[in-house]
Structures are given as structure tokens and as C-alpha cells.
Amino acid sequence: MSQKKFWSTILLLVLSGVVASAQAVRSERVSPAESAIERGNRSFAKADYESALRDYRSVARSDGETFAQALYNTGVCYFELWRTAEAIDHYRQAVAAAHGRYPKASYALGVALEDEGRLAEAREAYRQSIAASEGAYALAHYRLGLVISMQGDYEAAAASFRKAIVQAGEHVPASHNNLGVMLARQGRLTEAGREFEIALRQTGGAFGDAAHNLKLCRSLLATPVQAQNAPMKLSGVIAAALQ
Q1: 109 near 139, Cβ under 8 Å?
Q2: Could you give the CA distance from residue 155 to residue 149 in angstroms, rounded to a whole number?
Q3: What is the CA radius of gyration of the chain?
Q4: How does DSSP classify residue 223?
Q5: What is the DSSP string of 36-73?
Q6: What is the DSSP string of 163-176?
Q7: Torsion over CA of 93, 94, 98 and 99, rounded to 10 degrees?
Q8: Nearest Cα to Cα of residue 69 among 12, 108, 43
Q9: The CA-based dihedral angle spanning residues 142, 112, 237, 161, taken in that order and rounded to the nearest 10 degrees
Q10: Tens of pLDDT, residue by residue, the chain (243 residues)
Q11: Are 114 and 147 in contact (CB under 8 A)?
Q12: C-alpha distances in Å from residue 129, one per residue of 8, 103, 124, 209
């Protein structure tokens, strides 16, 4: 499975909720712009990205928040089509159309920039997502931690993973694992081991990265070496969702 196709399986998670919501209010008046979004989402679910793009592009600037939503969804389509530069452009437009208050679009922008290796810009996009959500966008904290860890600031990365942990979601076990790696790289092996154990408990023991890291951590505690250079495994979770 390609990397972008892996992301697509997560993108589609929100689609059922969108369609269900539209059906629940079928008796109420639905605007043409909202109908276009719904049609586009159905096409996306079938991997008919070109049809989805046509529907999203039919939403006008005068449609306000729905216009920002259409720009964001257009970006998701372009990203799935491997047209990352166009995805980045549309995510930026979506954030601008929402006057900077679009955490999901800022997060998706960070993912796309990270995919292009533009880590400094990705870091700022994740921070924008966090600010726009008043700290509530857990995946932005998670991805920010990963980007910061690449730059060698393990203490700051650990702080980001801790912020991700306090918000419920599927990212939590991986956040514990990655926090453990950051602690290990600071030589705090006992604390690191506890994080790996938590990650394993939360997944019923089915977390290969955490199992590997815990075994290595125990070995390092028994025979101390430079923990900063130990081959521990970070876990990556990348997600963006249609609206």
C-alpha cells in the first residue's frame, strides 16, 4: 500500500459521519454549496477524485465557511493524487479563507509540507493548528513532536507528545511510545520504560514498536551504554480528514 493510499484510509473515516449528518437533516433546507460538498465526498469515497474536485470547485467564495471547506477538501484530493504542491496551495487558501481559524487545514498543510521535506514550514503549520484550536488539536501536537525530534530537541519533542497524550484518540499509545523514546534519548531510561509499558497495555500488547523499545530499554538498564544512540523506534501517525 502506498503512503498516500495509507493516509486515504484515514481520510475516509469522516465521510460516513458527513453523509449521515446530511441524511439526518434531509427535511431541512440544504444549500447548493452543502450539496456540492456532499456529492464531492461521495465521489471521494469511490476514489473518483476528478468528480469530487468538480463538485468542490463549484462552491463559490460567497458561500463563506463552506468555501473554506471546499478549498480544504480540494487540497485533500490533490494530495491523494500526488499533486502535493497544489494540495499545499489549497490548504493555505483554506486557512486564509477561514481567517486563520481552521485547525484541520493547518494540520493538513503541515502533513503536506512534511511530505515535501519542508520541515521548518511544517513545524509552523502544526503550531498554527495548535493555536487555532486553542491547544485542542491532538494530532498537531503529535506531528509537531515528531518534527522537533528530527531536529534533536528531545525535551521539546517530549513536551509535545505529553500534550497529545492528554487528549483521547487513537494517537495516544503511539504518543506514549514516542515520549518514551525522547526520555530514553535523554538518558531517562526508567521513565522511558514506563511509557513503553503504558503503550503496550493500551494496545493489548499488540504494538511492535513499543515492545521493541521496552526490550531494548531493559537491556540498556542492565548494561548501561549511550542511550541517546540506541536504535529505538518512533511511531508515525499521519491523518487528515475530509469534511
Answers
A1: no
A2: 9
A3: 20
A4: S
A5: HHHHHHHHHHTT-HHHHHHHHHTS-GGGTHHHHHHHHH
A6: HHHTS-STTHHHHH
A7: -30
A8: 108
A9: -10
A10: 455 544 443 443 333 234 444 444 444 678 999 999 999 999 999 999 999 999 999 999 999 999 999 999 999 999 999 999 999 999 999 999 999 999 999 999 999 999 999 999 999 999 999 999 999 999 999 999 999 999 899 999 999 999 999 999 999 999 999 999 999 999 999 999 999 999 999 999 999 999 999 999 999 888 765 545 567 777 775 445 556
A11: yes
A12: 21, 4, 9, 27
Neighbours of 154 (CB within 10 A): 20
C-alpha cell at 232: 529505538
**Coil, strand or helix at 179:** helix
Residue 85 to residue 117: CA distance in whole angstroms: 12
C-alpha cell at position 16: 460516513
Classify 168 in phi/psi space as left (phi over 0), alpha (psi -120 to 50) or beta: beta
Residues with Cβ within 8 Å of 199's Cβ and at least 6 positions away in sequence, in order, are: 173, 174, 176, 177, 180, 207, 209, 210
Among candidate residues 24, 182, 102, the one with its CA nearest the CA of residue 76? 102
Cell triple for residue 144? Answer: 509537531
Determine the Cα–Cα distance for residues 85 and 199; give it in Å rounded to an integer: 36
Residue 52 CB contacts under 8 Å (≥ 6 apart), including other chains = 40, 41, 43, 44, 73, 77
Q: What are the backbone angles phi and psi of residue 34, rounded to the nearest 5°?
A: -65, -40
CA 77/CA 220 separation, integer angstroms: 45
Given CA atoms 212, 118, 107, 87 in this order, what sign does their dihedral have? negative
